[in-house]
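Step 1: inspect the first sequence and its tokens.
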Amino acid sequence: MPQNRYFIIYKPFGILSQFSGDANTLKELGDFPSDVYPVGRLDKDSEGLLLLTNDKSLNHHLLNPRFAHKRTYLAQVEGIPTSEAITQLENGVEINVDGKMYHTKKAKALLLEEEPILPPRNPPIRYRKNVPDSWIELNLIEGKNRQVRKMTAAVGFPTLRLVRYAMEDLLIAGYEVGEIREFDKKSIYELLKIT
């Protein structure tokens, strides 16, 4: 029986969360076993934590909405969100999901006082002298397609840069862009709070 493998990568901006295709895929980051796949996705213009594994039961657990797990995102947004906007994000907002309006679940949102310590993005976001930007930490227990971007836009503060920073206690603090670290099953299950 093949052994379960667990890789955490800091997915770079511009890379697709898949192995198939000619360019800009996970193949460019390293040589992974052929039965290992990403759990969930990060879209091409998002970066950060991506878990790759061949553990089918873990995959099922993390993608099943009945087993909600916390995902932490750091979003650099255009403008400086008001306390009303932060409250709206926390209470849930209406976003379009597959052509239907959807009210997001309650979340935790925080306007950060300082820019988080992250590796620089390549290419950097476009700097505009007369438009301030700021960072929000957003904790969600669901993962609809492009949800964070849709949520910040819904409250009037479009996302410029998006980084998935953590899943439960598994985080990418100290990772470089494109870095890969392998974990054992016990560590992964503990960090993801799976019993």
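Step 2: inspect the second sequence and its tokens, then contrast the two.
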Amino acid sequence: MPRPELLEQIYTIVDQIPAGRVTTYGRIAAMTEGATPRMVGSAMRHLPEGHQLPWHRVIAASLTLADHGGADRQHQKLRDEGVMFDSKGRVPAHLVWPD
């Protein structure tokens, strides 16, 4: 798990991702003071109970959903926000935040 100060940075960034948009583990890591994409993934896997963070808006650099147990739920939550996927399961690049 990332250090507490990195966790706070990661969660603050994730909280800012607008509905209908996505960002990548790497983009979030680049906005912190030292987190790696893997640390961001770990932070998403260990979200505190009862959180309201839009974890589903964080995707892989390939613009696909990471292979994890919540991928079906993530896919549905994104679709509910109007995010569409191409035939290969990728999110269109124009939906990546920040611009």
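Step 3: confirm your contrast with the notes below.
The longest helix spans residues 4-15. Residues 4-95 form a domain with the Arc Repressor Mutant, subunit A fold (CATH 1.10.10.10).
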